[in-house]
Amino acid sequence: MKKTLLILILLALTACVRTDSASIEPRPMPILMFHMITDNITDPYMQVTPAQFRDFLIAMQDAGFTAISFDDLKNYVTGTGTLPPHPFIITFDDGYLCNFEQAFPILMELNIPATINIIGSRRGQATYEGHPSTPHFTWEDAAQLVTSDLITLGSHTYAMHGRYPHAQGGWAIILEHTNFVQNFKADIAAMHAHTSTHIFAYPFGIRSTIAEEILINHGYTITLLTGGYVSHITRGDPATLHGLYRINVPATLTPADLTWLVYTLSK
Questions:
Q1: Model pTM score
Q2: Which of 59, 53, 55 is nearest to 34 (CA)?
Q3: Does 9 score more than 60 pLDDT?
């Protein structure tokens, strides 16, 4: 409670001092990263409970932060939109069924937008490379999510993510393949056959210069990393929308610690 009150005071003072968008360029853009929402926590790094997820969102709002979409962010950077004083973005990676069953109702309740970066080939799948895996929501579920106008779909590759130990290599090795350019273009086409998106989340946060060039040429305006940092964006500079860092939110973090972490990293 004390941390939240202090953050509110500091954010209010910041808003009073910085009265126009030009005076605060470049602007910090905190982006939170989640994976699974479940009451059965077995991996605290990848999972939070539904109650924790809801508390995280409410704590961010109570601390003076406002959730926006990547479209809001893109419109601001390209000069056609505005941003609230202290924005933040919610993201999920992989597209697990729990995002649809557990996270989506909470986002609807609180009217908070989010982006789910899906692995296209795993829609509706509960196995991977012949092994049991966490279930992923279907394309039908994806359509319902998008229809809500709160959820945006991003790409986490269609079928090139790879996961040790079951994957035949993984993203880092895939990047070194002699046919990477051809294969990656085909992967992008496969994703776009199912859904249109301009957002790409790099598997494991591993950025590639070649992949970035291909993505830009295919109309991707936003690319996401991991890293636990806060990136800064600049109005009129679309390049600042590429390679955006994200903060992973684990089950071991309290809501007060999250807001304090976001505030601290946003300085």
A1: 0.91
A2: 53
A3: no
